[in-house]
Specification:
Blueprint (H helix, E strand, L loop, with lengths): L1 H25 L5 H23 E2 L2 E3 L2 H19 L9 H17 L5 E2 L5 H35 L13 H29 L9 H24 L4 H28 L2
Antiparallel strand pairs: 1-2, 2-3
């Protein structure tokens, strides 16, 4: 049953992508309602799949692929809602593509990493902070890449710069730093709850998560300071945002990938 749910969700994400791409390529109008309803149905099936894969009578299966699918779901949900207020057509195909890939992998490549969060609500708080901080800062990295792309097209005087489906450069920059600020606050909460609620946070095999996450927090904090105090913009901002997101990805998925995928 989960296989069919995954296929339906993936096809609905692909439909949303197929509705967006022609508008970006040909600079024509994009059918927002079609994209939104396709994405909404995809998210419903995606959530259904996650509930089947994660929740078990004995606990929660937070395997790497399930968590990746959950993060993709959160990111797609936030971006789909934001679609109604701002032009996200450049980012949405990337977000929906990752959602389709991750949910398919979770459904067809089963893996197990059982937890029992019902017995440790403090750990649930820490994981919640971690999921939302990573999702938010991933969105920030996508915004940074979009900002760099728009800046390049404007400087190169490409016709794509006047594509009506793309947002103004200054709006993207403003939204980017709002997102990074929120994400860094959530990352701060992740580090604090990890320090107080996770007893073996710096034990052998886990220390790299805390260290890499803290380094990422420093990078984002420096980026915010540099922007608001020194007026940092352009390529430097992109490198900082992408570097922070990369470190967070390595912090969680690095060792888990080796343990759950390569060594199994």
């Amino acid at each position: 049953m989960d296989d069919y749910i995954a296929v339906i969700a993936a096809l609905l994400y692909v439909l949303a992508i197929a509705t967006i791409i022609p508008g970006l390529v040909h600079q024509t109008g994009i059918r927002t309602r079609t994209v939104f309803f396709s994405a909404a149905l995809a998210l419903i099936f995606h959530a259904w799949l996650l509930s089947d894969l994660i929740f078990d009578t004995t606990g929660q299966n937070l395997s790497m692929l399930n968590v990746a699918s959950l993060i993709s779901f959160i990111t797609a949900l936030v971006m789909s809602i934001a679609m109604l207020r701002t032009k996200l057509w450049f980012i949405l195909p990337v977000v929906y593509s990752f959602s389709a890939i991750n949910l398919t992998a979770a459904a067809f490549v089963p893996s197990v990493f059982m937890t029992h969060l019902q017995h440790d609500p403090r750990l649930l708080i820490h994981i919640t902070f971690a999921l939302f901080s990573y999702s938010t800062l991933t969105i920030g990295a996508l915004y940074a890449l979009q900002l760099a792309w728009l800046d390049y097209k404007l400087k190169a005087k490409k016709t794509i710069a006047i594509n009506p489906n793309l947002p103004p450069l200054m709006m993207v920059e403003r939204q980017l730093f709002n997102i990074i600020l929120i994400g860094n606050v959530l990352l701060t909460g992740t580090l604090i709850t990890g320090f107080f609620f996770v007893e073996d946070m710096f034990a052998q095999g886990k220390a790299h998560k805390g260290i890499l996450s803290f380094v990422a927090w420093i990078i984002y904090s420096v980026l915010l300071w540099g922007h608001y105090q020194r007026g940092w913009r352009g390529r430097k901002v992109t490198w900082f945002a992408v570097a922070g997101a990369t470190l967070l990805t390595l912090a969680y998925f690095g060792s888990r990938f080796v343990k759950e995928i390569i060594l199994t």
